[in-house]
Amino acid sequence: MRYHPRSIVVPPRASPIMLPRIDDLFDRLPAGVVIHGPRGRIVSANQLACRLLGHSHVELIGAESTANVWHFVDDDGTPIPPSEFPVNRVLRSLETLVDQVVGVPGLPDGRVRWLLCNAYPEFDDKDELMHVVVCFTDCTALKYAEQSMQKAEERLRLVLQGSTDAPWDWDLVSGDIYYSDRWWEMLGYPIGEQESDAGLWTRLAHPDDQARLAAFLPDLLAGRDQKYAIEFRLRHRDGHYVPVLSRGYILRDAQGKAVRMSGTNTDLSERRKTEQHIYDLAYLDHLTGLPNRRLLLEKLEQVLRCSRASGRFGALLFIDLDNFKLLNDTLGHDSGDQLLRQVADRLRSVAPDQRLLSRFGGDEFVLALEDLGQTVAQASARAAETSRVILQLLAKPHALPGKMCFSTPSIGIAVFGGGIDQVDALLKHADLAMYRAKADGRNTMRLFDPAMLADAEREASLQESLRLALAQDQFVLYCQPQFDRAGQLCGAEVLVRWQHPERGIVAPNEFIGLAEKSGLIVPLGQYVLEESCRALARWAGDPVLGALKLSVNVSVHQLRESDFAQTVAKVLTLTQARAGRLWLELTESVFAENPEALIERMQALRDQGVQLALDDFGTGYSSLSYLQRFPLTALKIDRVFTHELLASPSGTPVIDAIVVLARKLGLQIIAEGVEYEVQRDYLLDCGCDALQGYLLGKPMPLASFENLYGKRATGAKNQP
């Protein structure tokens, strides 16, 4: 027996008084209602149905349930075929239809209106279908909220899938706790291997983090915060600990009681590696792995604070490798780097605290020693003992590619404690002591003395004055004459003097050494070379001066310049001086430089016509093999041997040997430092070609030399 619900269609016998009331009730229904006849045509519709379907009452009455009239869409936006229209489904099945959702396109903003449809058939007393009633409500807002929620859930799902974060959730009321698959994967545990309870966090936490975690959670739950973040370490299944950042949200009830916690764990392993890499780049030396200058300075601040607090003394060792540049240049930078690594490894073996051992820069290392004693004497003695160990350790040969190499250090020691509490001052003291060790022969150690600081300050002041002197043309040229065997003027040596505005004339022995040490010797030497060539150009028209050779001292620092020969050529061209009259005097220290490169530069000078003499012969690094290869013109016998002619008979064999050697090599011989006639006579008798000294002529200003020996001079003036 079919169910016969009461028809909404007004029966013919209905009271005329009731008709308006029924129509009004029909239009006031909170749902849209459309009544279809047994063939599907619409026979009635209320006002809400007209509005929801987007048609007028006139348009609806008599409309068929076909695709020509209706355009409904499904959840996914695809058109619904007419057979699946709500009314047609009921006409086909003659069964009630519940909660079919259909979309009606065509809203003014281009969106779809979504309707929740319910439909049922009505039968007459003979079970013949009379009507199909379709009721529908507007569920557009609900539908769009559902779609928005679905999108949000999908978005969250994709984010979590693409993220390394591990979600978890804890219902504080029921005690249920959820750990995601990623949570277990982060720690290497198969799902189900560990019990999924709230105590898991504490069981897996690093021992050093457990107390902090145990205190953090109760405080968090008892407080009012809704968000939290904390870092700690959890034990991985293989035994190591994974650093994690746990962040989450606490849901609280109306009274503020925590009822739920949800959050994610982020694996910080890669971040920690990146942070460590950044730290290494900022604070460690890439070659040796030792703390760099920056980190050392920070550590020294801490060391000095501890020293002040404890009242104990310590020491700073400044270690510099001797002649490292020469090794680096001859063996190559790869060998130099390997040597530095080996030195670092050896120093590690003697450093009480390797955090206080640093590669300070280049071939410099710094080692801080703490807690050496209660007095300066105790600290100095223990620092000296450590330094002796380092000297012995670094003196052992180093195995470099293809050869064994020896390298020695110079060590400066500065004690700290007491009144020294500035890092800069401490480093300066140790550095000064190191340079004193180098000055005293290298491969040794020196303890800082306050006198070193005074010397350094005087040297710095003098160096600044030298720079000012170069800028203000305070240097002047002097000339000392040279005479041949017949006593005739044959040349002169250029000597530089400093015309100091307050001190007057300053001799070269007071500033040449500092000029070489500071690198100012190069611009000073350039100035002397240019002024000397200008003098040669002036002399060209003088019958006496034009025949002279002019000797100019050249520093080894100038010869190191790869373009030195080109520099000389430019000066000669600029001044129009005759190259054959220019003699460049080299000291024997050039033999310590790269001989092959030096020979090439010397030959380039000789090709220009410039003559070369070896100054101070017999006092330095002379090598007979180099003498044969160097394109020299003359040897100069140093004044030390000339002086020995008066002091001891043993001086004569040395001079005799030098003269014989020079003759064998085809070189001219010039003796300097001649102050007595007995010296002159002996040097002439043994075969010297030219003489120079106070007996024959003192150094004098260049202008005075030109006036004395120029074309207006008499022949008598030209003889000693």
Would you give an account of this structure?
The chain has about 725 residues and is α+β, with helices and mostly antiparallel strands. The longest helix has 23 residues, at about 140-160. The radius of gyration is 52 Å and the shape is elongated. The relative contact order is 0.04.
Summarize the structure.
This protein has 720 residues and is of the alpha+beta class.
Q: Helical residue percent?
A: 40-55%
Distance between the termini: 158 Å
- Record field, number of beta strands: 27
Please compute the radius of gyration using only Cα atoms.
Answer: 52 Å
Shape call: elongated
Mean pLDDT: 86
The largest sheet has its strands arranged as 18-19-21-22-23-24-25-26
Structural class: alpha+beta
Helix segment tally: 25
Q: Could you tell me the strand content as a percent range?
A: 15-25%
Q: How many strands, which pairing sense, and closed or not: the largest β-sheet? A: 8 strands, mixed, barrel
Sequence stretches where pLDDT stays below 50 over 5 or more residues? 1-10, 713-720
